[in-house]
Amino acid sequence: MNGIINRITAKLTLRQPPARMTAAVAELALEQGRISRLQVAEILWSDPMSAANILKRANESYYGMRGSVGSLLHAIEVLGPESCLKMLSTGSEYSFESPATDAVIRHARATGHISHRLATGTWMAFNNSASRPGFVATTGLLHSIGRLALCASFPAETESLYGFSELSFPVSGSRTELEQLQFGIDYAEIGEFISRKLNLPSEITEAVRGHLSPSHIAKDSPARKLSAIVAAATYIADKTGYGMEPQVSIPFEAMDESLNIFRKEAALQDGEVARVCEELHDMNLNTPNLGFEVSEGAVSRGAVSKPAADRAPSPSQPVNSRTGAPRNSGINRTAQVPAKQSKS
Predict the structure, then answer these.
(1) Greater pLDDT, 178 or 307
(2) Of 206, 101, 96, 181, which is closest to residue 148 (Cα–Cα)?
Protein backbone atom coordinates (compact mmCIF):
# COMPACT_ATOMS: atom_id res chain seq x y z
CA MET A 1 0.00 0.00 0.00
CA ASN A 2 2.81 2.43 0.90
CA GLY A 3 4.37 1.78 -2.50
CA ILE A 4 1.15 2.80 -4.25
CA ILE A 5 0.81 5.93 -2.12
CA ASN A 6 4.43 6.92 -2.77
CA ARG A 7 4.04 6.46 -6.53
CA ILE A 8 0.91 8.62 -6.63
CA THR A 9 2.00 11.35 -4.22
CA ALA A 10 5.33 11.69 -6.02
CA LYS A 11 3.39 12.83 -9.10
CA LEU A 12 1.08 15.25 -7.30
CA THR A 13 1.18 18.97 -7.95
CA LEU A 14 1.21 20.19 -4.33
CA ARG A 15 2.24 23.85 -4.43
CA GLN A 16 -0.35 25.07 -6.89
CA PRO A 17 -0.25 28.76 -7.88
CA PRO A 18 -3.40 30.85 -7.39
CA ALA A 19 -6.29 30.58 -9.82
CA ARG A 20 -6.37 33.21 -12.56
CA MET A 21 -9.34 35.00 -11.04
CA THR A 22 -7.73 34.94 -7.58
CA ALA A 23 -4.61 36.62 -8.97
CA ALA A 24 -6.66 39.17 -10.91
CA VAL A 25 -8.80 40.15 -7.94
CA ALA A 26 -5.77 40.27 -5.63
CA GLU A 27 -3.88 42.62 -7.95
CA LEU A 28 -6.86 44.92 -8.39
CA ALA A 29 -7.38 44.94 -4.62
CA LEU A 30 -3.76 46.02 -4.19
CA GLU A 31 -4.30 48.85 -6.66
CA GLN A 32 -7.40 50.00 -4.83
CA GLY A 33 -5.81 49.71 -1.38
CA ARG A 34 -7.36 49.73 2.10
CA ILE A 35 -8.65 46.17 1.97
CA SER A 36 -9.59 44.35 5.17
CA ARG A 37 -8.65 40.84 6.24
CA LEU A 38 -12.30 39.80 5.81
CA GLN A 39 -12.19 40.86 2.17
CA VAL A 40 -8.94 38.94 1.67
CA ALA A 41 -10.61 35.90 3.26
CA GLU A 42 -13.48 36.22 0.81
CA ILE A 43 -11.07 36.27 -2.12
CA LEU A 44 -9.38 33.14 -0.76
CA TRP A 45 -12.71 31.41 -0.22
CA SER A 46 -12.85 30.57 -3.92
CA ASP A 47 -9.34 29.11 -3.96
CA PRO A 48 -8.86 26.45 -1.23
CA MET A 49 -5.32 25.53 -2.30
CA SER A 50 -4.22 29.17 -2.05
CA ALA A 51 -5.93 29.33 1.35
CA ALA A 52 -3.94 26.27 2.44
CA ASN A 53 -0.70 27.90 1.28
CA ILE A 54 -1.52 31.07 3.22
CA LEU A 55 -2.05 28.90 6.31
CA LYS A 56 1.27 27.21 5.67
CA ARG A 57 3.07 30.55 5.51
CA ALA A 58 1.42 31.77 8.72
CA ASN A 59 2.55 28.61 10.54
CA GLU A 60 6.21 29.05 9.63
CA SER A 61 8.59 29.55 12.55
CA TYR A 62 9.63 32.96 11.19
CA TYR A 63 6.46 34.51 12.63
CA GLY A 64 7.15 33.16 16.12
CA MET A 65 3.62 31.97 16.91
CA ARG A 66 3.47 29.90 20.09
CA GLY A 67 0.48 27.90 18.89
CA SER A 68 -0.61 26.74 15.46
CA VAL A 69 -2.69 28.96 13.17
CA GLY A 70 -5.79 27.10 12.01
CA SER A 71 -8.18 29.88 11.05
CA LEU A 72 -7.87 31.57 7.67
CA LEU A 73 -8.72 34.93 9.25
CA HIS A 74 -6.02 34.44 11.89
CA ALA A 75 -3.50 33.59 9.17
CA ILE A 76 -4.36 36.78 7.26
CA GLU A 77 -4.01 38.78 10.48
CA VAL A 78 -0.56 37.25 11.16
CA LEU A 79 0.72 37.90 7.64
CA GLY A 80 -1.17 41.12 6.99
CA PRO A 81 -3.81 41.63 4.26
CA GLU A 82 -1.40 43.41 1.92
CA SER A 83 1.23 40.67 2.19
CA CYS A 84 -1.39 38.02 1.44
CA LEU A 85 -2.54 39.92 -1.65
CA LYS A 86 1.05 40.22 -2.86
CA MET A 87 1.50 36.45 -2.51
CA LEU A 88 -1.67 35.86 -4.51
CA SER A 89 -0.90 38.37 -7.28
CA THR A 90 2.79 37.56 -7.81
CA GLY A 91 3.93 35.28 -10.63
CA SER A 92 2.84 34.50 -14.15
CA GLU A 93 1.61 30.94 -13.66
CA TYR A 94 -1.94 29.99 -12.71
CA SER A 95 -3.32 26.80 -11.22
CA PHE A 96 -5.03 24.25 -13.44
CA GLU A 97 -8.73 24.95 -13.97
CA SER A 98 -11.43 22.66 -15.34
CA PRO A 99 -15.14 21.87 -14.83
CA ALA A 100 -14.11 19.17 -12.36
CA THR A 101 -11.98 21.66 -10.40
CA ASP A 102 -14.85 24.15 -10.36
CA ALA A 103 -17.20 21.48 -9.00
CA VAL A 104 -14.77 20.51 -6.24
CA ILE A 105 -14.30 24.16 -5.21
CA ARG A 106 -18.06 24.75 -5.24
CA HIS A 107 -18.51 21.79 -2.92
CA ALA A 108 -15.61 22.86 -0.67
CA ARG A 109 -16.98 26.38 -0.25
CA ALA A 110 -20.44 25.11 0.61
CA THR A 111 -18.99 22.61 3.09
CA GLY A 112 -17.14 25.45 4.81
CA HIS A 113 -20.32 27.51 5.11
CA ILE A 114 -22.38 24.56 6.37
CA SER A 115 -19.66 23.50 8.84
CA HIS A 116 -19.76 26.99 10.33
CA ARG A 117 -23.57 26.87 10.56
CA LEU A 118 -23.56 23.49 12.30
CA ALA A 119 -20.86 24.58 14.75
CA THR A 120 -22.19 28.04 15.64
CA GLY A 121 -25.89 28.05 14.76
CA THR A 122 -25.39 31.05 12.45
CA TRP A 123 -24.41 31.44 8.81
CA MET A 124 -21.01 32.78 7.96
CA ALA A 125 -20.68 36.07 6.12
CA PHE A 126 -17.79 38.27 5.08
CA ASN A 127 -18.63 41.51 6.80
CA ASN A 128 -17.99 43.07 10.17
CA SER A 129 -21.44 42.54 11.62
CA ALA A 130 -22.07 38.88 10.80
CA SER A 131 -20.62 35.64 12.08
CA ARG A 132 -17.02 35.51 10.93
CA PRO A 133 -15.32 32.43 9.45
CA GLY A 134 -13.12 30.61 11.95
CA PHE A 135 -11.30 27.35 12.50
CA VAL A 136 -14.25 25.07 11.72
CA ALA A 137 -15.17 26.90 8.51
CA THR A 138 -11.54 26.83 7.38
CA THR A 139 -11.39 23.07 7.95
CA GLY A 140 -14.57 22.60 5.92
CA LEU A 141 -13.09 24.64 3.07
CA LEU A 142 -9.87 22.60 3.06
CA HIS A 143 -11.41 19.14 3.46
CA SER A 144 -11.14 18.31 -0.26
CA ILE A 145 -7.70 19.73 -1.10
CA GLY A 146 -6.72 16.15 -1.97
CA ARG A 147 -9.30 16.07 -4.73
CA LEU A 148 -8.08 19.43 -6.08
CA ALA A 149 -4.55 18.00 -6.22
CA LEU A 150 -5.86 14.98 -8.12
CA CYS A 151 -7.63 17.25 -10.64
CA ALA A 152 -4.49 19.33 -11.19
CA SER A 153 -2.13 16.36 -11.40
CA PHE A 154 -4.28 13.92 -13.39
CA PRO A 155 -6.71 16.11 -15.39
CA ALA A 156 -7.77 13.58 -18.02
CA GLU A 157 -8.30 10.78 -15.51
CA THR A 158 -10.25 12.90 -13.01
CA GLU A 159 -12.48 14.57 -15.61
CA SER A 160 -13.41 11.11 -16.86
CA LEU A 161 -13.77 9.70 -13.33
CA TYR A 162 -15.96 12.55 -12.05
CA GLY A 163 -18.22 12.70 -15.11
CA PHE A 164 -16.87 15.77 -16.93
CA SER A 165 -15.52 14.08 -20.04
CA GLU A 166 -16.92 12.57 -23.21
CA LEU A 167 -15.23 9.38 -22.03
CA SER A 168 -17.25 9.32 -18.79
CA PHE A 169 -19.83 6.61 -18.34
CA PRO A 170 -22.27 5.66 -15.55
CA VAL A 171 -20.69 3.57 -12.80
CA SER A 172 -21.82 2.34 -9.43
CA GLY A 173 -20.05 3.07 -6.17
CA SER A 174 -18.91 6.15 -4.31
CA ARG A 175 -16.35 8.58 -5.71
CA THR A 176 -13.86 7.56 -3.04
CA GLU A 177 -14.19 3.91 -4.09
CA LEU A 178 -13.62 4.93 -7.70
CA GLU A 179 -10.54 6.91 -6.69
CA GLN A 180 -9.19 3.87 -4.92
CA LEU A 181 -9.74 1.79 -8.06
CA GLN A 182 -8.20 4.41 -10.35
CA PHE A 183 -5.26 5.60 -8.23
CA GLY A 184 -4.97 3.15 -5.33
CA ILE A 185 -5.63 6.05 -2.95
CA ASP A 186 -8.57 8.35 -2.24
CA TYR A 187 -8.80 12.12 -1.87
CA ALA A 188 -8.88 12.05 1.94
CA GLU A 189 -5.58 10.17 2.11
CA ILE A 190 -4.04 12.58 -0.39
CA GLY A 191 -5.47 15.50 1.61
CA GLU A 192 -3.76 14.19 4.74
CA PHE A 193 -0.47 13.90 2.84
CA ILE A 194 -0.76 17.48 1.55
CA SER A 195 -1.78 18.81 4.96
CA ARG A 196 1.27 17.23 6.57
CA LYS A 197 3.53 18.55 3.81
CA LEU A 198 2.17 22.05 4.37
CA ASN A 199 2.54 21.66 8.14
CA LEU A 200 -1.08 22.57 8.81
CA PRO A 201 -2.43 22.18 12.37
CA SER A 202 -2.85 18.55 13.43
CA GLU A 203 -6.62 18.93 14.00
CA ILE A 204 -7.11 20.04 10.39
CA THR A 205 -4.91 17.19 9.15
CA GLU A 206 -6.88 14.64 11.15
CA ALA A 207 -10.21 16.05 10.00
CA VAL A 208 -9.15 16.14 6.35
CA ARG A 209 -8.30 12.44 6.59
CA GLY A 210 -10.95 11.41 9.11
CA HIS A 211 -14.11 13.15 7.89
CA LEU A 212 -14.96 10.09 5.78
CA SER A 213 -15.06 7.94 8.93
CA PRO A 214 -15.18 10.11 12.09
CA SER A 215 -15.90 7.05 14.23
CA HIS A 216 -12.36 5.82 13.55
CA ILE A 217 -10.86 8.84 15.31
CA ALA A 218 -10.10 8.42 19.01
CA LYS A 219 -12.89 9.81 21.19
CA ASP A 220 -10.47 11.92 23.20
CA SER A 221 -8.97 13.54 20.08
CA PRO A 222 -9.83 17.22 19.49
CA ALA A 223 -10.34 16.29 15.84
CA ARG A 224 -13.18 13.85 16.58
CA LYS A 225 -15.96 16.45 16.83
CA LEU A 226 -14.39 18.59 14.10
CA SER A 227 -14.36 15.60 11.74
CA ALA A 228 -17.99 14.83 12.60
CA ILE A 229 -19.02 18.41 11.79
CA VAL A 230 -17.19 18.40 8.45
CA ALA A 231 -18.58 14.95 7.63
CA ALA A 232 -22.14 16.12 8.25
CA ALA A 233 -21.54 19.32 6.28
CA THR A 234 -20.14 17.34 3.37
CA TYR A 235 -23.21 15.10 3.37
CA ILE A 236 -25.60 18.07 3.44
CA ALA A 237 -23.67 19.88 0.69
CA ASP A 238 -23.84 16.82 -1.55
CA LYS A 239 -27.53 16.23 -0.93
CA THR A 240 -28.60 19.83 -1.48
CA GLY A 241 -26.93 20.31 -4.84
CA TYR A 242 -23.54 21.69 -3.74
CA GLY A 243 -21.71 18.53 -4.63
CA MET A 244 -20.42 17.11 -7.87
CA GLU A 245 -23.76 15.59 -8.84
CA PRO A 246 -26.93 17.15 -10.33
CA GLN A 247 -29.04 18.89 -7.72
CA VAL A 248 -31.16 16.54 -5.65
CA SER A 249 -33.30 16.82 -2.54
CA ILE A 250 -31.96 15.48 0.72
CA PRO A 251 -33.84 12.38 1.95
CA PHE A 252 -34.39 13.32 5.58
CA GLU A 253 -35.58 9.84 6.46
CA ALA A 254 -32.36 8.19 5.24
CA MET A 255 -29.60 9.58 7.42
CA ASP A 256 -26.04 8.81 6.50
CA GLU A 257 -23.58 7.37 9.04
CA SER A 258 -21.80 10.72 9.21
CA LEU A 259 -24.99 12.46 10.33
CA ASN A 260 -25.66 9.79 12.95
CA ILE A 261 -22.16 10.26 14.34
CA PHE A 262 -22.60 14.03 14.32
CA ARG A 263 -25.90 13.68 16.19
CA LYS A 264 -24.10 11.82 18.97
CA GLU A 265 -21.01 14.03 19.06
CA ALA A 266 -22.77 17.41 18.96
CA ALA A 267 -26.18 16.55 20.45
CA LEU A 268 -27.90 17.63 17.26
CA GLN A 269 -31.47 18.72 17.85
CA ASP A 270 -34.37 17.11 16.00
CA GLY A 271 -35.09 18.87 12.75
CA GLU A 272 -31.82 20.82 12.71
CA VAL A 273 -30.56 19.22 9.51
CA ALA A 274 -33.88 19.94 7.81
CA ARG A 275 -33.67 23.58 8.93
CA VAL A 276 -30.14 23.91 7.58
CA CYS A 277 -31.27 22.52 4.22
CA GLU A 278 -34.26 24.86 4.10
CA GLU A 279 -32.00 27.83 4.75
CA LEU A 280 -29.60 26.65 2.05
CA HIS A 281 -32.39 26.71 -0.50
CA ASP A 282 -32.86 30.42 0.24
CA MET A 283 -29.18 31.21 -0.23
CA ASN A 284 -26.89 31.42 -3.22
CA LEU A 285 -23.40 30.52 -2.08
CA ASN A 286 -21.94 31.28 -5.49
CA THR A 287 -23.01 34.91 -5.78
CA PRO A 288 -20.48 37.61 -4.82
CA ASN A 289 -21.21 40.57 -2.60
CA LEU A 290 -18.25 42.91 -2.93
CA GLY A 291 -17.76 46.23 -4.71
CA PHE A 292 -15.54 46.23 -7.82
CA GLU A 293 -15.87 43.91 -10.76
CA VAL A 294 -13.66 41.54 -12.67
CA SER A 295 -15.00 40.47 -16.03
CA GLU A 296 -16.05 36.84 -16.45
CA GLY A 297 -13.82 36.41 -19.46
CA ALA A 298 -10.72 37.63 -17.65
CA VAL A 299 -7.83 35.30 -18.33
CA SER A 300 -5.06 37.67 -17.35
CA ARG A 301 -4.53 40.66 -15.12
CA GLY A 302 -4.92 42.89 -18.15
CA ALA A 303 -8.54 41.80 -18.54
CA VAL A 304 -9.63 43.17 -15.17
CA SER A 305 -12.47 45.67 -15.34
CA LYS A 306 -11.75 48.81 -13.33
CA PRO A 307 -14.55 50.28 -11.19
CA ALA A 308 -16.51 53.28 -12.31
CA ALA A 309 -15.38 56.52 -10.67
CA ASP A 310 -18.83 57.23 -9.27
CA ARG A 311 -19.43 53.70 -7.91
CA ALA A 312 -20.96 53.86 -4.44
CA PRO A 313 -19.52 51.72 -1.64
CA SER A 314 -21.19 48.33 -1.27
CA PRO A 315 -23.97 48.14 1.32
CA SER A 316 -23.85 45.63 4.14
CA GLN A 317 -24.55 42.06 3.15
CA PRO A 318 -28.31 41.44 2.94
CA VAL A 319 -29.93 38.99 5.31
CA ASN A 320 -32.78 36.65 4.46
CA SER A 321 -35.86 37.94 6.26
CA ARG A 322 -37.24 34.46 6.97
CA THR A 323 -34.16 32.54 8.08
CA GLY A 324 -31.85 35.31 9.24
CA ALA A 325 -29.17 33.80 6.99
CA PRO A 326 -26.93 36.09 4.91
CA ARG A 327 -27.83 36.04 1.24
CA ASN A 328 -25.22 35.86 -1.50
CA SER A 329 -22.30 35.06 0.80
CA GLY A 330 -19.36 33.79 -1.19
CA ILE A 331 -17.51 34.73 -4.34
CA ASN A 332 -17.51 33.25 -7.82
CA ARG A 333 -15.80 33.87 -11.11
CA THR A 334 -17.40 37.31 -11.45
CA ALA A 335 -15.47 38.59 -8.45
CA GLN A 336 -15.86 41.99 -6.86
CA VAL A 337 -13.95 44.09 -4.31
CA PRO A 338 -14.85 47.48 -2.82
CA ALA A 339 -13.84 50.55 -4.78
CA LYS A 340 -11.23 52.80 -3.23
CA GLN A 341 -12.75 55.72 -1.40
CA SER A 342 -11.44 59.13 -2.36
CA LYS A 343 -9.55 61.13 0.23
CA SER A 344 -11.35 64.17 1.50
Answers:
(1) 178
(2) 101
